[in-house]
Amino acid sequence: MDVLEAAKERRTIRRFQDKPVPWETLGKCVEAARLAPYARNVQELDFVAVDEQERVALLNKAVNFGGIVKKQGRAKGEDAKAFIIIISENARSDSDYTQMDAGIAACSIALAAWSQGVGCCLMGSIEREQIKQILGIPEGFSVQLAIAMGFPNEKPVAEEANENDSELDYWIDEGQLHIPKRRLKEVLHRNRF
Ligand SMILES: Cc1cc2nc3c(=O)[nH]c(=O)nc-3n(C[C@H](O)[C@H](O)[C@H](O)COP(=O)(O)O)c2cc1C
Known about the structure:
By secondary structure, the protein is α+β, with helices and mostly antiparallel strands. The protein contains seven helices and seven strands; from the N terminus they run ααβααβαβαββββα. 30% of the residues are buried. The site of flavin mononucleotide has 13 residues, from β3.
């Protein structure tokens, strides 16, 4: 799978098969994040990859799946099979760019996972203190993002949103999740706005 294909096909996955994610797969995802761009090359991030199922179960309780979807009556996805937690070392986070670095690392992980057949949900709505306790993360580190992972058990599709539509809520029909995306001609500005 080439990079453009992975970028176009990747969708957030919140329902997962009952199948473990191999440790090697998680390692390759972290390798992609390790080599990602960092502002000023600070590399303030560490990654806690979790495949031990007792700890995965605790993490599933410390994250909030799918806000907008939930309102439409979709069951919570509490069955991630692995997690990668992105943390930052406060003493090394000397720039304003830590959150951006974490986002770029998370995207690298999501694409690396997708290219290996594994789905992800990037998660910002998480119980950070609880996660620190579950994983034994020491003082001086902050939890940036959680990435819930597993082999997909759903096939969400991207749809072209109506032009200038500010309503970008997902919709579900026959169990399939549809994700409206703003159109290329609306977001791409050639040479000037
Ligand atoms: C920074 C960030 C935080 C997110 N936090 C959550 C979250 O807490 N819970 C959740 O279910 N999805 C979360 N998402 C996933 C988004 O809802 C999802 O990316 C968006 O709906 C678009 O769908 P797509 O990834 O399939 O294109 C987050 C995504 C990003 C980039």
